[in-house]
Amino acid sequence: MGLLEARVHDLLKTWQQQRSVPPWPHALTMGRLVSRALRLRRSALIQTGCLPSTYAVSYLLPCLLSNQPIRLVTTAHRRNQITTETLPALKTWLLTTPASQRSLIWPDILTPEEWLQTGNRDSHSAPSNPTLTIIEPAEHLEDWTRQFFSQHLDWSSLVAAFAQAPQRREPVLTAW
Questions:
Q1: In this structure, what are the phi and psi dihedrals at residue 125, rounded to the nearest 5 degrees?
Q2: What pTM, to 2 d.p., does this model score?
Q3: What is the pLDDT of residues 37-59, one digit of tens each?
Q4: Which end of the chain has fewer CB atoms at under 10 Å, N or C?
């Protein structure tokens, strides 16, 4: 186990012991898996089957302690929750913990639309050192992508297009 995995494991264990809410049973495992993926700079797909608020600390803690640029892709509602509640609480707690002696790296939090809009462009890093991306919840990725790349036409926009290219009217109306 690497240094990041060990630190995250110990901190998550302490975090859970200090909370009155029963801990998510897989928090330590997820923290180690995310830490290992960050350390090795490898992809990891982790599906939990529970609410993100249940397991968020398990992946946010390794992100905060990692020295790498990280993008978190999530809904606007979750972004608001993470930036106003989860991350500040975690940061405050970490600053009171002796095991956390260095600055914390905040992830760049994007909505799916913002992330898809940026494409593969990485503003934080060179191509040989890409920004790592966490997608929460990944099970919606297909829907987000389909919605982003879909074009919606109404009749008025078709009429305008037909005025510019009348020869395309018949094939379009036949296909529609």
A1: -150, 165
A2: 0.75
A3: 888 888 777 777 777 777 889 99
A4: C
